[in-house]
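Quick one:
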Amino acid sequence: MSTPQLEKTYDPKAVEARWYKVWNQQGYFHASPTHPGQPYCIVIPPPNVTGSLHVGHALNHSIQDILIRWRRMQGRNVLWLPGTDHAGIATQNVVEKQLMAEGASRESLGRERFIERVWQWKTTFGNTIVSQQKQLGESCDWDRLRFTMDEWLSKAVLEVFVRLYEDGLIYRGERLINWCPRCLTALSDIEVEHEDVKGKLYTIRYPLAKDPTQYLLVATTRPETMLGDTAVAVHPEDDRYRHLIGEEVQLPLTTRTIPIVKDAILVDREFGTGAVKITPAHDFNDFEAGERHKLPRISIFTARAEMDGVGLQEAQVDQSLNLALKPVQKARAIVVDALTARGSLEKVEDHKMALGKCYRCKTVVEPYLSPQWFVKIKPLAAPAIEAVETGKIRIIPEGWTNNYLGWMRDIKDWCISRQIWWGHQIPAWYCTKCNHAHILKTGHSVGATGEGGILPEVTKWNYTFAQEAQPIVSRSAPTRCPNCGGQDFLRDPDVLDTWFSSALWPFSTLGWPEQTPELKTYYPTSTLVTGLDILFFWVARMIMLGLKFMGDVPFRDVYIHALVRDAEGQKMSKSKGNVIDPLHVMEQFGTDALRFTLASMASPGRDIKLAEERIEGYRNFANKIWNAARFSLMNLDGPRTVTAPSERTFPDRWILSRLNQTIHVVTSELEAYRFDRAANALYQFIWHEYCDWYLELIKPTLQNSANPEGPGTRQTLVETLETTMRLLHPFMPFLTEEIWQTIPHQGASIVVQRYPIPEVTWTAPEMDQRFALLEQTIGLVRTSRMLLNYPPGQQIRLYIAHDEPQRQDHLDQLRSYLAHLGRGTVDLAPTTHWPTSNLLRLVTEGLSVGIAVAGDVDLNKALDRIIKQQSEQTKEIERLEGKLRNQEFTAKAPPEVITDHQDRRTSLRRDQAMLISSEQQLRAMLGT
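Output:
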């Protein structure tokens, strides 16, 4: 029976669609807790349900799929659990924009109908990114697809919240929080992105109350907030102000006086004027100072970052300024003009500062005084610190461990409430009778009733509760108030921070709080693959809550990959026009080319500088593999003989030995999460050793049907190609499956075949040494041909000799291969027997190669080529030496990079010495 053949060219689109469907239908990705193998589990970092696959996802998911396919082929009990995140703020924004386009709003719908609308949107568009993940070839267990708002996961969220509250680790308190005036919700510290901007520093005169001719100078970047000042602080040991402590100053633009207090924590007497305004309701440091000095808090902004009329009255601000409902920037201009007009503005200077912005909508974030729900984090952080310090969790690369520990040791309580509607509503209820005075309206009533129906002016979506309100936290809605016996309740309208539900992901997705077979089998999970940007958002919180509720870490290894940037190292953004769309390049170059590109560039600690040309290069690699497979298949017809490796030909023994070494390297590098080195080992073996050398070396054997070595070589060809496809499969799943199916094999799919392991009988170091001699010799032959400009197909006479007798014997054994690759006849006589004229000799490390200089060779042009090559080598040597002399480079570069530079320099110096000798020989022939 003839061997199946491949199409002439590789068509990724047809192959990818066909095989992914087969894999899914056959259930190859489905995990079973009863599988006998050692469990290996990864829970996917859930992409936002609003999202579309971007190049960061492509990197993250490609790395995970490499690990999953590799471990599955090793026989492990593999579960890759997929899912999406409800992405509270982001999803609500998307749906609100839709409503706006329809002339509606969430307020006009009301909370319940709005949430129904979001679910409708999720049903229609929420699986977009899932289908794109499948295009990338992700071998997830799609039968276990999770969503953070699923009933099962919502049950886990409810249970965790209640238990934390019962343990005293969740509390409600009025605190200064980060507030987005656009999204109208609280943000945690790590949801605020800081951007360096050019601002202004305003120095204001605060007159002493007892002597207005004297004043303190106070500097601020936000003069509009001074209206909410409740004190001025000075350092207790500052001789300039010590006598003023306890006195008062007149607050400009108001009728209030405020005290001068001493504060060594807030004030740096060496910085600025040494006097600092305290605005407890609008600055985090000032809030803490206000707590220390028991100062009142006067909030002068609304939730939309407009001046609050009620707050301005409390602050006793001059009403003629007409500041009520003015946005921050307009209010600032009015305040500055008024200070200038009244002689209270000392000076204005340019000032660089960090401006906090909402990570979602990029609106400037305001410190805002508001009742919120918090997690008391220090008791949870301590075990999470210990888990990393003791090695229960490894962070890879190790350099990020200190970042994690530093942040965890300085961690602040976590604000978990958000003033939006889409998300897990906080399970807290308020008795309307007990808390009637503490219900605050935040929207426009439309006459709907509250839960219980006694407050027709309050709807389910337009109220909140003052700090004094007393919540009842429960797993279900209470039916009777334990204080007054009342039966009417309103539920807290806030929802939980999206990261709260995500922090439970490793165990909630496996069925917790039930003790499911999946939870018992796959928790703790094995590896988490993530970016540095969510190390604190997500990873740290999963560790804390995993330890709290499971009594064990959520994963053993945390692999942090690099960021993907453009070819110039710039962050990709639509505004810059430098975004590489993975869907586009997958369409253009094939999915495997993109996956292999990202893996090959995933060096620890280095951002990936990605260009489409690089992806195109690996598309060429895929084509090279395809053509090599076609060549192999076209030469498999005929007998095959299984013989011991030691009895096979030199090329067969050598390629088996090289494949064996590649198996060892790839496996060890995957164990070490060095995807770049594993990919590069595969590339080096397949392109250079297998395609460029092995297939060329065996062509004479395969082309001669009478050659007795043919059956053994065909068997080696099958073994090496089939093994190489299995070795490459985790990186390039589609290409390898298509090729593997045409090779003689056992089993239904490469997906569930065993991953290659080194074979003792394949190791042949003596063949590696012999090949090194062959490669070196052919390298000199090709250099000689190039210098003399001989056409590739021109047959020439080759003189080859080695100073070492053993190497000379090896050359004799390699004679036929030297003749085939060198395109000529081979004379292995000692150099003393070589022609004394018209012969170009290249000598290196005891090896001599001579090529006759034909009469039609233009010696002057040959000399020019040598001189040009010498010049290029000199420049490259100088470049390498410059880098090796650079202390910054040698201090930062990985050891293997420095070694590579040193080896390259040595090789170039050796080649240059050889070229100098060649130049001298040609000059002698020319008589110059």
